[in-house]
Amino acid sequence: MVTTVLDLATVRNIGIMAHIDAGKTTVTERILYYTGISHRIGEVHDGAATMDYLPQERKRGITITSAATTCHWSLSGTDHVVNIIDTPGHVDFTVEVERCLRVLDGAVAVFDGVAGVEPQSETVWRQADRYGVPRICFVNKLDRAGADFHRCVDMIADRLGAVPLVVQLPLGAEDGFTGVLDLVSRRALVWDGAGDGEEFAVTAVPAEHAEAVERWRARLVETVAEHDEEILELVVAGAEPSRERLHAAIRRLTIASGRSDDVTVTPVFCGTALRNKGVQPLLDGVVRYLPSPLDVGAVEGFANGGTVTRGPSDTEPLSALAFKVTSARHLGRLTFVRVYSGRLETGATVLNPVRGRRERIGKIYRMHADRREEIGSAGAGDIVAVLGLKQTTTGETLCDERAPVVLESMEFPAPVIEVAVEPRARGDQDRLGAAIARLAEEDPSFQVRTDPETGQTVIGGMGELHLEVLVDRMKEESGVEVAVGRPRVAYRETIRRAVQKVGFTLRRQTGGHGQYAKVQISVEPITADDATYEFVNEVTGGRIPKEFIPSVDAGCQEAMRSGVLAGHEMVGVRVILQDGDFHPVDSSEPAFRIAGAQAFREAVRRAGPVLLEPVMAVEVTTPEEHMGDIIGDIGARRGRVRGMRERSGARVVDALVPLAEMFGYVGDLRGLTSGRASYTMRFDSYAEAPRDA
Ligand SMILES: Nc1nc2c(ncn2[C@@H]2O[C@H](COP(=O)(O)OP(=O)(O)OP(=O)(O)O)[C@@H](O)[C@H]2O)c(=O)[nH]1
C-alpha cells in the first residue's frame, strides 16, 4: 500500500463536459489510454468503453453516473496527477452535474466539429459559468465530412459569449486531417496514421501553412495582451513574448476567467479522439492552463455560527466533502470524497457534523475507472473513494472532531415527476423493494412512496429520462422486470385555514380487553418556506399519559404522508394537541396512534385543503431577437418572468413556471428559436394548483 504526499501544484481535478454525442466518452477513453490506465482503446460504439461501466450505460452509449478516475501525465519532466470526474450531459441529471461541478477545479468542454456549439453545449457551459469553473475547449471530430474548426470557434464566441484563444490550427481537414499546428511553439504535430495514435512527429510548420500560423499567432498574442498587463507591456515595447511567458499568461487568464462574470477567456484545442489525433496536446493543455487546488485556494465553511475557511494544505484540520455514494459489488458502500484540507487516514475516526455522528474511515482507494488501488491516506486536494462510511451521504462534510466545520452543501431539488412501478412477476415484490432501496441510497434526488389508494409503489425523480434510467438499472443490476405507469407531476397537499378543537375517540371492544384513546387537536398552516410539519403538545395534568404523546405525533405524521384530497404527501401543517382522555387498561400506543391519525384527517378536511404543484425556476438563455417570443410563451404556460439579464453576450430570462406546463418544452423552445435558445430548470417552490389540475 502506498501513502503519497501530493505536490498540490501538480494536481488537476477536472471534468469533461459536452453535449450528448460530442465525444466526451471517446475523449475520456483516449485520455485513460495515453496516461496508461487502460491498455487498449475501448470504442464507445462496441460497448467496451472503460469509463461508462454500468451495463445500462454501455447499452445506451451515453454517460450517466459520474465516476472519478485518477491518471498521471508528465509535462516537461514533471509528473502530474489528473483526477477526472465524469460528468453527465443530459439536463435530467442536473444533480449529477451539480455534484461534479461542486468538486472539480476545471473542465474540458468538448464540441462536435461538424455540429459546433449545440444548444445543450450551451446549457452545460452556462452551468459551468454559474459555478465559476475555468475551461479549455476541444473541437473534436475534425475527421468528419463537413467539420469546420473556424466555424466552431466563431460559435464559441457568438453563442457562448466567450473569448476563444485559438492555440492550435488543424492540419488538413476531414479525411486529410493529420494533426495540429501549435501556435505557441510554432510547430506541427503530425500523426502519421500508423499504429493507434501513440506516436506523433514534431516538425517545423510546413511552408504552405507558415503564413496562417503567423497570422493566428499574432491574433493569439493580441487577444492575450487585451486582457493581461504583462503581455500588453511586452507588445507595446515591441518585444516578442517567449513561449513560457505566453503559456503563463494564458494560464492566468483561463483561471481568472472562471471567477469573472463578464469575460471567459478559453484556450481552444482541436483534433479527433476517435482517430487518436490531438489528445496528447490536449492533456498538456489541461496541465498547463487549468488550475491546481492551490490556484483555487481556500474553501469556505460554517462553524460555531460563523464562516471559516480551510486552506488547501495537509497541515490544516481535515475537511472533506462526500460527493457520491455507490454500492460496489462485493465491497459494499463506497463513498467518493474530495479532500479540501488536512489528511484522510485509514482507520481514523472523523466527524460528520451534519449528522453529529462519528465515522470510521475504512479503506481508501484511488479509483482508475473500474480498477481500484488501495492507499493508506489521502491529502488536501485529492479525490478518492472511501469504504466503511455508514451514515454519510452525498453533500455531507467529514471533518476533524476537534475542528468541526460544515462545508457549504449541495442542494438537492425535490423530485417532481413520478411513476408507479410494479414487478412483472408476482414474487418479485421484495426484490423490487431491495433494488429501489439500493438506488435511493446512491441518488438523493430519487424518492419512493406508496400510493395509499392503489397500494402501488411510486418512484419520484428529476425528469422522465432520470426515472427511465433508474427502472432500467433495476432490471440490469437486480434482475427485476418492472411495469411502469405514465409519468405524472408530483403534487403535494396543504391546508389554508386553522381549525380548532377537532376531537376523535377510538373505542373498540374486540374479544378480551378493548382499545380506548381520545384526542383533541387543532391544526394550522405553517407559512415558513421550508416547514413541513410541527407538533406542539399543550396537554397538561396527565390527561394523556406522557408515554402516549409521541404516539399521537407519530399518527399525525403517518397521516401527513397521504393527504385527504388525492393521497399526496402533505406539507406545512402545525398540529397542536390540546386535550384527550385515556383508560388505565384499554389505552395503548397503537390506540393513540390511530386516534391521532383520525383526528388529523378530520381536522385537515375542515381546514381548506388544497393541491400544491411544483413550480420550476426556469432560466432561458437566448439571442436577443427571440426574447419576445419566449416571454409570450412563458405567459401562456401560466409562468411569470422574474427578471432579465445579460450574460456573456446572451440574454437570460428568469421565470417561474409550473412543471405541469413544462412537458415538451425542449421541443417547443427549439421550434420558437430554431434551436438557438437553451434552458435549465430546477425546482423552486410549491404553489397552489388550479382546481382542475
Ligand atoms: N468521426 C468521429 N467520430 C467520433 C469522434 N469522437 C467520437 N466519435 C463518435 O461519436 C459518437 C459519440 O461519442 P461518445 O464519446 O459516446 O460521446 P459522448 O459525448 O460521450 O456521448 P454521451 O456519453 O452520450 O454524452 C460515437 O459513435 C463515437 O464513436 C471523432 O473524433 N470522430
UniProtKB/TrEMBL annotation:
<dbReference type="InterPro" id="IPR004540">
    <property type="entry name" value="Transl_elong_EFG/EF2"/>
</dbReference>
<dbReference type="GO" id="GO:0003746">
    <property type="term" value="F:translation elongation factor activity"/>
</dbReference>
<dbReference type="InterPro" id="IPR041095">
    <property type="entry name" value="EFG_II"/>
</dbReference>
<dbReference type="InterPro" id="IPR035647">
    <property type="entry name" value="EFG_III/V"/>
</dbReference>
<dbReference type="Pfam" id="PF00009">
    <property type="entry name" value="GTP_EFTU"/>
</dbReference>
<dbReference type="InterPro" id="IPR014721">
    <property type="entry name" value="Ribsml_uS5_D2-typ_fold_subgr"/>
</dbReference>
<keyword id="KW-0648">Protein biosynthesis</keyword>
<feature type="domain" description="Tr-type G">
    <location>
        <begin position="9"/>
        <end position="294"/>
    </location>
</feature>
<keyword id="KW-0342">GTP-binding</keyword>
<dbReference type="Pfam" id="PF00679">
    <property type="entry name" value="EFG_C"/>
</dbReference>
<dbReference type="InterPro" id="IPR005225">
    <property type="entry name" value="Small_GTP-bd"/>
</dbReference>
<dbReference type="Pfam" id="PF14492">
    <property type="entry name" value="EFG_III"/>
</dbReference>
<dbReference type="InterPro" id="IPR027417">
    <property type="entry name" value="P-loop_NTPase"/>
</dbReference>
<dbReference type="GO" id="GO:0005737">
    <property type="term" value="C:cytoplasm"/>
</dbReference>
<dbReference type="InterPro" id="IPR047872">
    <property type="entry name" value="EFG_IV"/>
</dbReference>
<keyword id="KW-0251">Elongation factor</keyword>
<feature type="binding site">
    <location>
        <begin position="86"/>
        <end position="90"/>
    </location>
    <ligand>
        <name>GTP</name>
    </ligand>
</feature>
<feature type="binding site">
    <location>
        <begin position="140"/>
        <end position="143"/>
    </location>
    <ligand>
        <name>GTP</name>
    </ligand>
</feature>
<comment type="function">
    <text>Catalyzes the GTP-dependent ribosomal translocation step during translation elongation. During this step, the ribosome changes from the pre-translocational (PRE) to the post-translocational (POST) state as the newly formed A-site-bound peptidyl-tRNA and P-site-bound deacylated tRNA move to the P and E sites, respectively. Catalyzes the coordinated movement of the two tRNA molecules, the mRNA and conformational changes in the ribosome.</text>
</comment>
<feature type="binding site">
    <location>
        <begin position="18"/>
        <end position="25"/>
    </location>
    <ligand>
        <name>GTP</name>
    </ligand>
</feature>
<comment type="similarity">
    <text>Belongs to the TRAFAC class translation factor GTPase superfamily. Classic translation factor GTPase family. EF-G/EF-2 subfamily.</text>
</comment>
<dbReference type="InterPro" id="IPR053905">
    <property type="entry name" value="EF-G-like_DII"/>
</dbReference>
<dbReference type="InterPro" id="IPR009022">
    <property type="entry name" value="EFG_III"/>
</dbReference>
<dbReference type="Pfam" id="PF22042">
    <property type="entry name" value="EF-G_D2"/>
</dbReference>
<dbReference type="InterPro" id="IPR000640">
    <property type="entry name" value="EFG_V-like"/>
</dbReference>
<dbReference type="Pfam" id="PF03764">
    <property type="entry name" value="EFG_IV"/>
</dbReference>
<dbReference type="GO" id="GO:0003924">
    <property type="term" value="F:GTPase activity"/>
</dbReference>
<keyword id="KW-0547">Nucleotide-binding</keyword>
<dbReference type="InterPro" id="IPR009000">
    <property type="entry name" value="Transl_B-barrel_sf"/>
</dbReference>
<keyword id="KW-0963">Cytoplasm</keyword>
<dbReference type="GO" id="GO:0005525">
    <property type="term" value="F:GTP binding"/>
</dbReference>
<dbReference type="InterPro" id="IPR035649">
    <property type="entry name" value="EFG_V"/>
</dbReference>
<dbReference type="InterPro" id="IPR031157">
    <property type="entry name" value="G_TR_CS"/>
</dbReference>
<protein>
    <recommendedName>
        <fullName>Elongation factor G</fullName>
    </recommendedName>
</protein>
<dbReference type="GO" id="GO:0032790">
    <property type="term" value="P:ribosome disassembly"/>
</dbReference>
<dbReference type="InterPro" id="IPR005517">
    <property type="entry name" value="Transl_elong_EFG/EF2_IV"/>
</dbReference>
<dbReference type="InterPro" id="IPR000795">
    <property type="entry name" value="T_Tr_GTP-bd_dom"/>
</dbReference>
<dbReference type="InterPro" id="IPR020568">
    <property type="entry name" value="Ribosomal_Su5_D2-typ_SF"/>
</dbReference>
